[in-house]
Amino acid sequence: xxxxxxxxxxxxxxxxxxxxxxxxxxxIGGLWLVYLSSRYNIGxxxxxxxxxxxxxxxxxxxxxxxxxQWEWKVxxxxxxxxxxxxxxxxxxxxxVALLQMLAIMLIAAALLLLGFSISPIPExxxxxxxxxxxxxxxxxxFYAAVFTFAVSIYIGAWATLISVVNAVAGKILGRFxxxxxxxxxxxxxxxxxxxxxxxxxxxLTRW
Length: 207
What we know:
single chain; mainly alpha; 8 helices
């Protein structure tokens, strides 16, 4: 376990600067939207929220694919001579991606709450105050966050597998290695279809 923590720390240090820059941009952009929503309409901060959630669904997958592509292109020898098993290397990347995603979600949630608290309520929904909306906002946000977190782990895990299969199949299939990745993708889609039939999926999406 100590070796895994070292890998996690290494992955964090390698991506710390870019992650902090992205979080700073998110914070500045979010505060600007909060300001606009306080001057004009609460929709200025509500409309971007679904797009951010969709992006977060694929954030771990994008992070892992970019990281693996860079390492296999620049430092492939480190993978060949690394004494640690592959699952440690891959899971440490997934963990860092999830931590970064969690930070994005916390900042976005704080900005949304700030926007709701200072933005004027439209006249056609008069009588509704921020304090009366707060429990509903927290409940909806909680379910949305749990669903996003769970699905992003699923997509990230399959993206990792697709990337590894592509790399391994490259020695056998050559330029047709994408066929192996496509086969894994089909299995992933079928697996998500099975996930939609579970009680957990219904609990998170049909409440």
